[in-house]
Design goal:
By secondary structure, the chain is mainly beta. The protein folds into two domains: 16-228, Sulfite Oxidase, Chain A, domain 2; 235-334, Immunoglobulin-like (Sandwich), CATH 2.60.40.650. 7% of the residues lie in helices and 40% in strands.
Length: 335
Amino acid sequence: MSISDASDESWRPPTVMDPSTTFRHKVRAEELTLAITPNDDVFVLAHFGVPHFEVKSWRLRIEGLVNKPLALTIDDIRRFPKIEIESFIKCAGFPHDPTIATRSVSNAVWGGADLREVLDAAGLDPAAQYLWASAPDHGTYARWGADHYRKDVPVTRVREGSVLLAYEMNGAPLPQTHGFPVRLFIPGFYGTNSVKWLCRLEASRERAPGIFTNELYNDPAPDGGTAPVWQAAPEALIVAPADHGRVEPGRHEIWGWCWGDHAIAIVEISLDGGQSWQRAEVEPRRQMAWQRFSLLADCAPGPLTIMARATDTRGVTQPSRDARNAVHGIKVSVG
């Protein structure tokens, strides 16, 4: 471990963007049949594209309100005790439109160092309220542009533990598209906060400046202002039957996955487009993993609109429409 110099820009390794435009990857809901999503099927959203740099030139700099600024190599990070967390990761959707539900979600086992322990080694100042997380990916997204990607996370969440400096996904090194060599991973928070290709953490009293904190990824707040998109809201996704698929008349299992920052207590299924609802069985949550729900239902011949809605342990239920976690509905032909 060495001391970093917060006055320069050396936190940025020489970087090539390839691709240099927005990169997306996701599989269809009916393909998410496994409890642990294979690495090749974990969704990706890289706003500016995918940065590439040599690991030997990479350091994770920890600066700002700390007693001992650090510049950590990947070997330094691996020397901290490794923990593994099974957790869903959910895309927050369109950064500039919180009314659109994109339903990009995966579930994986994430391995790495607990950020709380790393910050203890740096001597986090009690005055710090936020951690600014920065990565070297840069370019344009839609009508926005930035010379690097930056998000922030409340220090209170880090102090709860299990926020990772993740270097493994499902027991393998992070793929390049998922943030190799290290990404921030915040279980229970939307994926936009789990910064890929993490190069810098700055402890601050204030929230971070930048388009991804002040302009994009904000939801309307009850007081009329806006609130950052941090904790994932309750949501359910139907895996089977497949959307626009066909099934024979009779009894079928309707099943899928549900998740949220708080565990899901109830999932309800509607077979008539939301006019009536039946309770499904919901499996208990493992760590921060998504939960399986299922219902055996009799399906009569004709068109069928199936919907699923989740309610978490706080009693918060998915909205019916116009939200990033709006109720999921599919159409099926029976007969």
